[in-house]
Amino acid sequence: MLNLQFKSPLAGIQSIESLVKHLNINCNKITYLLENINSLYEGPIPILKSNGKPRPIYLCEPRLKYFLKRLNSKIFKVVSYPDFLHGALPNRDTYTNISQHLNAEVICNFDIQSFFTAITYEHVFDIFKNFFHFSAEVSHVLAKLTTVNNQVPQGSPCSSYIANLVFYRSEVNVVQKLRNKNFVYTRFVDDISVSSLSKKTKEDINEVHRIVVGMIRAYQFSLQSEKRSIAPSCKTRSLTVNKINIVKSKLSIPKKKRANIRAALYQLEQHFQEKDMKFVVKNFESVQGRVLYYSKYHPKSADKMMKRLKKIHIEISPLLKHYKRNRLKSDIRKYRNKNYIRNKPAITQKV
Q: 0.85 exceeded by the pTM?
């Protein structure tokens, strides 16, 4: 039976003392984090997405990161999340999300614009205060420590859990309304998909948009309209969810993308044969991630690709570990130097 509810087994935490006890941390640590919170998040660091646009990522100082991970394990991970959510949850991913829409005749896709940066302190405070039923004092402290510049920092340990909970007040009602009209609703973080196994009229589709967009805008979020699509299915056309094609009961990565993944693996092998270890080590994890992604949807053909990757990995494993450590240090150093130069006060000469 489907679970369509957000449920928390926690008794409402009403004081900082109770919070400290529940998280099993020192009270002085929370005081330190609150007093220094503006310097404990580092960013935004622009990371390019596949479409070429920058994604602002934040790094957490180790003491803050430890606290946020405690928050995850003791608070966010004990929540029972409804089955229509598939982002950043155990045993759920893009594959489980897309699988809910197999054999669909109609699919509507909605992408929330700049989702994490649009989730504010007020949204997070509301989650702690009215979903978890924590006191206003505790809710303020937790909202303060999980936001920066009045937004949820993408890349922080808690960001995906907060994104999953942000619609807790209305999402269940939206799902139920759509189910009553024989639609299936799923959400993968900021991507909402609604499908039907039967053909629908234009009025039915307009009603789906009214319900879903109404929920999005009620939270002061915006719709990224260029990703919004409605596609009727037929024998020669595929539907798309999370950039994966659905042809009746089969899931498939688009042909051009499959070719690009195979080409990337071939290129890696060529450089490996030429003993160009600098290129191989630098690009190995990227190619490996793409092949693993490929294997989700095309396991038979991906099996041979994984064996080819394994041969390379055996040879470069020590080099890869060393490269990963140095790359992280280098990226952080470059970012800090760039910010230092940008914010460095101008030197004035005395005349």
A: no
